[in-house]
Amino acid sequence: MKTINNIFKITLGLFLIIGITSCEDEAVNFDLNEKVGFTGKSYAIEEGQSQSIEVYVNSQSEANGNVSVEIIPLQDDLEYGVDYITIPAAVNNVVSFNYNSDNNSFEFVSLDNDYVQPASSILFKLISENNDFSIGQAGVQSTQIFISDNDIPVLNRFYDFNDQTNKYGIPAEFTEEIIDGFKTDRGWGLREYGVDGSWAVNASGYGGDAGTENAWLINDAMTLSGQTTATISFDIFSNYSGPGRIKVLYSTDYTSGSPLDANWTELTDYDTQAPAAGSRTWTTINLDVQELNADKFVIAFQFIEATSSSSSSWVIDNLSINIE
Ligand SMILES: [Ca+2]
Ligand SMILES: [Ca+2]
Ligand SMILES: [Ca+2]
């Protein structure tokens, strides 16, 4: 009887130990297995793209339950429905979805627009409200997405030279380069010979030292970031009918110094639009360059053939350069 009693006690003891161990396991399992966290530290997309934002739930059994995430734009001007949406849709910037073995994410969709913006970013944060899992440790409670703009800035330059009153000077944002061996004492200079007597830039070779002109008026480079089309327009006027003409050229590799060290493409459409030397009529020239594939764009006006004894002069005003 005593033996049987002892066996009973031992069995009861084992049962209790197993029971307690089992309870402890369940408690530990609940703690470890039902925590939700983000899988990615951060994401980077371009405007107009979408991204699955994934979470995981630590569970040895099949986890199934609701997950809620707060969407926190880190720039004030980012707006749900204007700049981004989520699938499923968020309500008051909280997106909720059912987590199960087939679905561990929601979709973030950046909406495309056609204007240039600084890069933006959005923080996603797991919240306990409407969430069936406990939230994992600090490192997985939030994730972030960086959205880069995909719009190409339009570059514009316009010169009416009206505030450029330094007679014979070279206008701001231009340099003059004279090719070695050619006349150095005339060339380009600011004069009040522009439209309606306004200031403009004038090319003349007449007088001074003997020689022939080869003077380049070169606009400071415009830095390109994906733009492919340049549209150029200007007004031009010619005095005197002697030798002397203008060539319009562009370069994508000119840096500084002699233009002969760079590659230039002549815009020969200018010649079909240009007024006759000495015609004394303002003429508007419209030129364009397509399929630009370069890091920069430089335009130049080359004044050639005029001499000290006889030359036509040329006035350029209202120069517009538009690149997109
Ligand atoms: Ca865009
Ligand atoms: Ca944009
Ligand atoms: Ca002017």
TrEMBL record:
Top-rank lineage group of the source organism: Bacteria
Xref: InterPro entries: CalX-like_sf (IPR038081)
Alphabetical list of Gene3D superfamilies matching this protein: 2.60.120.200, 2.60.40.2030
NCBIfam families: choice_anch_J
Identification of the protein by name: Choice-of-anchor J domain-containing protein
Species name: Mangrovivirga halotolerans
